[in-house]
Amino acid sequence: MNDSVDSPSQPLVITPMSRRFRGYLPVVVDVETGGFDWNKHALLEIAVVPIEMDDFGQLYPGVTASAHVVPAPGTLIDPKSLEVTGIVLDHPFRFAKPEREALDHVFAPVRAAVKKYGCQRAILVGHNAHFDLNFLNATVARCGHKRNPFHPFSVFDTVTLAGIAYGQTVLARAVQAAGFDWNAADAHSAVYDTEQTARLFCKIANAWPAPPVGAAP
């Protein structure tokens, strides 16, 4: 006779987003630009994807917000960069916004997500993330925007994460190593690259144990 008694199942304890990354909300960002120098080259596209968390503590990409950007007066555009991105500046359906309006458009859902999860601020996630952050910070400074939700210098870089997780540092190869499809024809679009980077980040982060609920913030 088995006298053992099954213990009641323990409730699933989820580390909330506000503690998952020490009060920061990961937000994936990609920019397309007129060159490599954030001090002089124009911002041409920006896309953001706030990272969400489900009832089981799994991360997943949120809704994408994006904007085409009117090159700011005084900024430069290297024609070679347009060859890479395929951006046609005078395309009739580009519907580009001035820098400040573009920032307002993408910052609004980021601030809403930060508030939703009780986080302190957003932290930029990107592939070669400091490139995106430097252009973002330069644009914020240029138009005097006072409500930037992002940490001014800290980032999560998927180059590093993918290098550790899959031994791949190129975005296309890292995405494929993570088990996702990659369409080269859509690459170098801010929206496509952001959404693929978000999938990659979530796949890697979900494979890593979350810190205990009682861990210090």
UniProtKB/TrEMBL annotation:
GO terms for molecular function: 3'-5' exonuclease activity; magnesium ion binding; nucleic acid binding; RNA exonuclease activity, producing 5'-phosphomonoesters. SMART domains: EXOIII (SM00479). The record marks F36, F131, F153 as: Important for substrate binding and specificity. Its cofactor is Mg(2+). It comes from the Bacteria. CDD domains: RNaseT (cd06134). The active site is at H188 (proton donor/acceptor). GO terms for biological process: DNA replication proofreading; tRNA processing. Gene3D superfamilies: Ribonuclease H-like superfamily/Ribonuclease H (3.30.420.10). The keyword Membrane does not apply. Residues 25-210 form the Exonuclease domain. Keywords: Exonuclease, Hydrolase, Magnesium, Metal-binding, Nuclease, tRNA processing. One of its GO terms (cellular component) is cytosol. Mg(2+) 2 binds at D30, E32, H188, D193. It holds the Pfam family RNase_T. Mg(2+) 1 binds at D30. Binds two Mg(2+) per subunit. The active form of the enzyme binds two Mg(2+) ions in its active site. The first Mg(2+) forms only one salt bridge with the protein. Its EC number is 3.1.13.-. Homodimer. Belongs to the RNase T family. Trims short 3' overhangs of a variety of RNA species, leaving a one or two nucleotide 3' overhang. Responsible for the end-turnover of tRNA: specifically removes the terminal AMP residue from uncharged tRNA (tRNA-C-C-A). Also appears to be involved in tRNA biosynthesis. This is Ribonuclease T. It comes from Xanthomonas sontii. The gene is rnt.
